[in-house]
Amino acid sequence: VILNAALLRTHLLRRMIQDDIFFITSLFSIGNISKEIINEDGRQKCLLTVDVIPRSEGQETITVKKVIILKHYSNSNVKNVIFSKGILSMNKKVNKIIKQKLNYKKELQNRLPEETCNKIWEKIHQRLTSYYEEYKDLPKRIASHTDTFIFPAAAIYLSIKEYAPDQAFHIMEKMMKERAIKAGESFAKMSKIPGFKTLFFKIWDSMSITAFGEKSGFKNKIYPVQNGEHKMDITHCPYHHYLTKLGCPELTILFCKNDEYSYGNIPGIKFTRTKTIGGGAELCDFKISKKAFSS
């Protein structure tokens, strides 16, 4: 099938694409593609060959078997781009998140056959698209947690579990831990900046109210600071709430552990927590205070 960019935009990507070049560049956010050359220098017209597997009515993803940009007009030079089989979502948010999760795909490829990986990746697109549609009216602060962290984790985990149930939790645990450790290493480097500890504690309570308050889907109790110790109990957690609704409450504990990896090894800062909702307790008890730098 040979279509010009405007026709393709109209029939396949009408809710996503604003111009022809945005269509071309948006394809680069798909996970399993191969790129030869492309020139992204403005609004250039292209002639496209697109081979897709049709989707049923109402679905927001299509399977792209091959996309070839036959002609890219830029100073009379012809540019060719060839894409291998992949998944294209008509949801910009899905494509953006999936692009950030390609490390999961690499991990899957190290463990599972290519065909299985492709099926899992398509399921991830489908699940994430459906989550965003179902919960599109969530308040902005709650969505900052669900759309960026909760829904992607659930979509990835449940999709892996469908094809590799014995490996799903271990993959999520490994990948989430690696990411949180990197965040902790960044905090540790920042702690070397003069005044970092003072600033950290100065904004801790206000950050707790904003990021972990009721408008963000949490319920918490913040205690007066005593002897330099900041205490907060979380009695309702949107991570546990939405992961339970989506059928994977067991993932909550991994997000709990992320806090320990991120905040537990910052020089000059002591982070403790004795229980979590994700671990089966009635609340999460956060305590954070200054400590002497180790030599």
What descriptors fit this protein?
47% helix, single chain, 18% strand, 10 helices, alpha+beta, disordered N terminus, 295 residues, 4-stranded antiparallel β-sheet
Write structural notes for this entry.
The protein is α+β, with helices and mostly antiparallel strands and 295 residues long. The protein has helices spanning 5-12, 20-26, 92-100, 102-111, 114-134, 140-163, 168-190, 196-211, 238-245, 252-263; strands at 2-4, 46-53, 61-72, 81-83, 86-89, 219-222, 229-236, 269-273, 284-290. The strands form 2 sheets. Strands 1, 2, 3, 4 and 5 form a 5-stranded antiparallel beta sheet that branches. A 4-stranded antiparallel beta sheet has the order 6-7-9-8. A hairpin with an 8-residue loop joins β3 (61-72) and β4 (81-83). α5 packs antiparallel against α6, α6 packs across α7 (168-190) and α6 (140-163) crosses α9. The radius of gyration is 23 Å and the shape is globular. The termini are far apart. The model is unreliable at 1-90 (pLDDT under 50).
User: Roughly how many Å is the radius of gyration?
Assistant: 23 Å
User: SSE order, as H and E?
Assistant: EHHEEEEHHHHHHEEHHEE
Strand content: 15-25%
Mean pLDDT: 75
Number of helical elements: 10
Q: How many beta-strand runs?
A: 9
**How far is the first residue's CA from the last residue's CA?**
67 Å
How would a crystallographer describe the biggest sheet? 5 strands, antiparallel
Question: What oligomeric assembly is this protein in?
Answer: single chain
Instruction: Kindly name the structural category.
Output: alpha+beta
Unreliable segments of 5+ consecutive residues: 1-90
**Overall body shape:** globular
How much helix is in the residues? 40-55%
